[in-house]
Pyridine nucleotide-disulfide oxidoreductase domain-containing protein 2
Amino acid sequence: LLGQILDQWFESEPLKATLATDAMIGAMTSPHTPGSGYVLLHHVMGELEGRRGAWGYVAGGMGALSQAIAHAAAAQGAHIFTEKAVCHVLLGRDGRAQGIVLQDGTEVRSKLVLSNASPQITFLELTPQEQLPKDFVQRIRQADTRSPVTKINVAVDRLPSFLAAPNTRDGQPLPHHQCSIHLNCESTHLLHQAFTEATHGRPSSRPMIELCIPSALDPGLAPRGCHVVSLFTQYTPAVLADGQPWDEQARNAYADIVFDCIEAYAPGFKASVIGRDILTPPDLERIFGLPGGNIFHGAMSLDQLYFARPAPSYSNYRSPVPGLYLCGSGAHPGGGVMGAAGCNAARVALEDFRYL
């Protein structure tokens, strides 16, 4: 249990709760959920430019990272097509992947097919079911893809000023504005309470909030004097109690709760808001293809990691369909902005390509 690990090393509840958020992030778990300690390890085991456990902002926003990868691929001769939805994987008579078919009917032939879509989309929607073992399909269907995350993007006309560290008169960003700010994280009990509410189909009344202001480091993201605020919030169930829909009313009601919480820490925040974009778990699934809204393509629990990701006997990026590979977050080692799954899958695919 994460709670036990933190209790062994720390005494301060705010510190323990702040560290615990990296074990809760993107996961429908609490500090008292068995196995939650691994998710914390997953988030701190990496490094950034030689600094262990460090995170960073991407200059120009996260889309700039995708553009950098695209430019690197194009420089090596890759052809990239966007807004071209895939209908299904094209199979030969021998059951081997031979390319893909687009929704407009266009066939793209290839000796190898790599998918960084989720295992659910790759194998339950794009691959003919008769070509897959029944136990494999069942495993993919039964995977835990629950997500507690509602992402809220906010545009503000001034920098938030927190009671704990008020802004200076010049309104320039202070060191804490350039970091991840954790709210409603005074104790692990608060995190567990927020989790419990979501398990009963109710959005947390005092949600866990990770607040980042990327424009404090990258001014080009917003007009002069204005800022963009990224809110990563939990816990919101994908399915609300009593069959209530995640409609505009429900979205805004939850966002109002989040904004009220921020207001308590930073008076004047609500008055500074000039726009907001609310993405609940169903929205994240619909827009980005994340199963259940899960940012990791599936829970990072020990029963869904290592040799069991996405299914036992298929953790080596190969699939039951020869020539079809999984290279996204649903493959080992799981989610996070690190590219490990894609790098490993490419190596396996290249190794197989030598024998075609």
In short: The chain has two domains: 85-144+291-354, 149-288. The chain has a mean pLDDT of 93. The first strand starts at residue 47 and ends at 48. The longest helix spans residues 248-265.
